[in-house]
Structure formats: C-alpha cells, structure tokens
Predict the 3D structure of the following.
Amino acid sequence: MSIEVFTSDFLVIGSGIAGLTFAIKASDLGTVHIVTKKKDFDSNTNYAQGGIASVFDPHDSIESHIKDTLTAGAGLCNETAVRILAESGPQRVQELINWGAHFSTRKNPNGSVSLDLGREGGHSYNRIVHAKDLTGQEVERALLDEIARRKNIRVFENHTAVDLLTQHQLKLTGKQINSYNNIRCYGAYILDNTTGVVHLFTSPYTLLATGGIGQVYLHTTNPAIATGDGIAMAYRAGALIADMEFIQFHPTSLYEPGHKERAFLISEAVRGEGAILLNSRGERFMEKLHPLKELAPRDIVARAIDMELKRLGDQCVYLDISFKDRDFLESRFPTIYHYCLEAGIDISKEPIPVVPAAHYLCGGIVSDLNGRTSISNLYVSGESACTGVHGANRLASNSLLEGIVFSHRAFCHIKEIFAPDNKDALPQFPQWDKKGTFDLEEWILIQHNIEDVKRVMWDYVGIVRSNRRLERAARRITLLEEEIQDYYRRSTITSRLVELRNLVTTAKLIVQSAMLRKESRGLHYNTNYPQQDESLNGSYIISSQQQPLFMKISEISFT
Ligand SMILES: Cc1cc2nc3c(=O)[nH]c(=O)nc-3n(C[C@H](O)[C@H](O)[C@H](O)COP(=O)(O)OP(=O)(O)OC[C@H]3O[C@@H](n4cnc5c(N)ncnc54)[C@H](O)[C@@H]3O)c2cc1C
C-alpha cells in the first residue's frame, strides 16, 4: 500500500457528538475529512444514557442552570463559558431535533406534548432531555444520518491519528517553535489500521474531538477508544493542558466480578427516579452525609461509597429501585433493565450491586470560548477540551451539551475567517519515517504495560489521593513511560501501540496536575489537604514547552 496525502478544508479527528456536530456545520463551507479509530459504536457519546441538560421547563431558568453548574464546579468554572453553555442549550438541542433526533416526550394534562425532562444529581429542576436511557446512541444515529446526507463529508473509519502536523515535522528549529504562540497545526499523521500505512492528512483547520481518558483507569465506564489520544497528541505538539486532576468517578457502575474492559453504567437517572443506596448491612448511608442524599453531587456520592467499601471491607454497595413497578422500569430504563436481567439481576425485585468507576475528565486541552487552542488553527471540542465549563466537577449531563455548544462556536469562529483557497497554501510534510522499526514480537510486554498503567492509576490516583500515593504513582509512571517510549521508537506502529503511548502520557499529566494541587477541591480529594483553599481558585496549566502556570482559564486568550 502506498502512502497518500489527503487534503481537505477541515480535518475532524473523532466521530462522537463533538466531531460529528462540527463536521455537519463545516460541510456547508467546504470539504470535511472525519478520521475515527472507531469500529462499530465505540465512542463515549454512544454509551451516554442519562441525557442532555437544557432549560425547557417554563418553571426552570437559565440562571438556575448556571447556578447549579457553578456550584458543582467548586469555584473553578469559567463563568462566561457556563453562561454560554446554559443560554445556547435549548437552541442546540432543537438543532439535534431538526437533524432527526427523537427524544422522549410526555403528554401534558391539557393534551399538549412536550419533552419529558428527567432529573439528575446537582440539578435544581427537571432539565435532562433524554431518549429513554439511550440518549447518546439516538444522538449519534441522528448525526450519522445527517452526515450521510452531506456530499462534502468523507469518513475514514478504523483510522488512528498518531501525531499532529506542526512546524516540528518540517524540522524547523529555534525561534520559530520556541514559544507556544508560534505553533501552527496543518493536520495529522493518520494510521490506516487495516493496512498499517501512515498517511498524511493535511488541512488548514483541524478539530480534535477525541473524547475522554477513562481507559487510563482499571475500572471505567468508558469504551476502549477513550485513551486520551487527542490530549496526548496536543501535549506533544506543545498545546496548553489544564485541570487534569479532576476526574469524575461515576458512583454507580454495575459490579460484575472479574475484570471487564468497560463497566456497565447504572445511570444517575435511576437515582433521579428515587433509587436509594444501601451498604451490605442494608443501611441507607447517604441520608446522614448530605441533604440531597442519593442526589448529592457525584464526587460526594462516590467518596461515600468508597468509604463504606473500605469501612466494611466490601466489594460493592447496593442501589435499590425495586419498589418501582416492573413496567415502568422496563420502559424508562430498557437498557439497564435488560442488561441487569441478563447478568442475573431483576432490578424490579432486588437491589443492584454497584461500584464507582472512572467516568469523565473535566480538564483537557485548554480552549477559549471559540474552541481555539494555544496552537494556531487547532480547535478542540467535547471531552478532550477544557473550556472551563466544568471547573473542578462536572454537573451531570452537561458534557453532551458542551460538545454541541462549543463545536457550534468553533464553526462560527472559523466561518468568519474561512477562505476556500486556504488549503492550497499548505506546506509539504515529510512522509512517516518508519526506518529502524521492527514488528514487535513480545506483545505480552505491551499488554502488561497497559495493565500496569491502569493499576497504578486506580490504586494511587483514584477517588481518594494522598501525597505518598501520588509520589509513588509519579515514580512508577515515569519508569513505564521510559519503557513505552523505547518500544514506540523501535516497533512498527500499530493502533494499540499508539494508544499505549498516549495512555502513559495522559497518566503522567493527571499525576503531575494532582501533585501540583495542594488542596482538596471538587473531584480532587487529597487526605493531606482535606479542605478547599480559597487562595487556589485557579487552574494548573501544563505544557511540554514550559514550566506549569497557575491562572484562571477565563484569563487565557489566544491571538
Ligand atoms: C457510559 C457513559 C454514560 C454517559 N452519560 C452521559 C449523559 O447522560 N449525559 C452527558 O452529558 N454525558 C454523558 N457521558 C459523557 C459523554 O458521553 C461524553 O463526555 C461525550 O460523549 C464526549 O463526546 P466527544 O465527542 O467529546 O467524544 P466521544 O464520543 O468519546 O468520541 C470520541 C471519538 O474520537 C475517536 N478517537 C479517539 N482517539 C482517536 C484517534 N487517535 N484517532 C482517530 N479517532 C480517535 C473515537 O473513535 C470516537 O469516535 C457519558 C459517558 C459514558 C462513558
């Protein structure tokens, strides 16, 4: 197979809600290449159950959505970004409906039909737009149908982005790349997973929409694709990265003995419908811990479960919704109901065994309010981005919303500067250099490295952290990184090797950020600093080009 150069007006890396939304809009301006390592349905978007937070109830208000988001964010949200999120929500959700997404509706007493709005933890009103418990799947279906109708879009499935194209690959040195302000993105090296050939995808505008990082941890609700690729690629290219210490652990994933690549999520919406948490002694422990009980913010519920497990030496706690009628449960939560039934649990008769699992990354590649990163012509949206919307803790169901809102804003920003001939002036990049690499014979070493990274992160950088655990994690991750870099340089490239390299880089960024934050705040809980320190109302900004900075995300702007 020969190496090819694929040039388009827009390169979109990732085919979840953020990438697809942007691609649909960008196709009105020019040609779009979507590159995705996805096979079948692997994206976080596809697994989203609960829904999309947005104000549709006349008793609800934008101000209330903003207030709830800021409260969850524990003082670190970028308030302007939060306002944009809440204000644009209804319009963007309506756009999904216009593209064909079917959300659950209900009949009102006066006969009219309106969206059926669910309730989730931390929200003061019912504002979760959902498609039963298959919201993400329905959204992705509608977006993919719309993509299929657009002639300007070409989708490259089973392709893995390896590295971004910047001046670095042109072998420019010195002044031209010594400051992050000078770096510019022209596309990416992309591996065709079927042929093993690395092609050049060039474009004046690249959007990273590669999703989350859950696979860095041993137990996660995220699918196999969530290896932090976009964040690691952007970091290597010199982008600013922030808030990596704030990992949301979902309190309730199904406890199934034996390790699974992806833990099945028991959506917060189940607690929204009244489910209660019990320990192995049948005691309801959330009542004494928080006035919102089971609907307290996720970090509080996850820590409470962690505490109960450690206190009683148990493997799981129990979520009980068995007091609801079977027909209701089957219709409101069809996926959960049937998945549990297949696992031998009838949720209408017995409590569900649950444990916390790594679920969502609040931080990521720093972006301004228009999705721009610190690298010129590189945009980011969705879970890979750090817009400052989530601060130290994400409010439930704000992430799908963030993807559609900020992809729209990135598009609007580019639309102002777009010219159809932009792509004619792209520099010529060297082909992927595979000299000196060999087929890896000892695959077992890689597999062990992946497990080592996941185990270290789970044991030492999980729900409850301490200085000693973080120092231990830092030492081990540094060693693993050296070993992995060595394989990477010597081995023929494969998607799994690319992911392993990105996993360890992402783990390093999480550990580094967690060590920098000398307080407990939001999702970052360190037993050495159990209190929030008001003098630390800012973010640690990490880059491969300079020492970490401490500042508010809202103070960052890019020229
Ligand atoms: C089980 C579960 C339930 C959730 N429930 C909700 C919910 O109810 N409400 C809510 O708001 N949020 C929810 N979330 C979070 C939300 O789903 C995600 O934050 C959101 O879908 C992220 O969208 P995205 O487009 O950024 O990334 P994703 O949907 O994860 O898509 C990432 C894409 O990037 C591709 N990719 C990654 N790396 C590469 C690479 N190197 N090369 C090429 N392609 C690459 C992947 O193949 C994938 O197509 C849930 C998450 C999970 C896991």
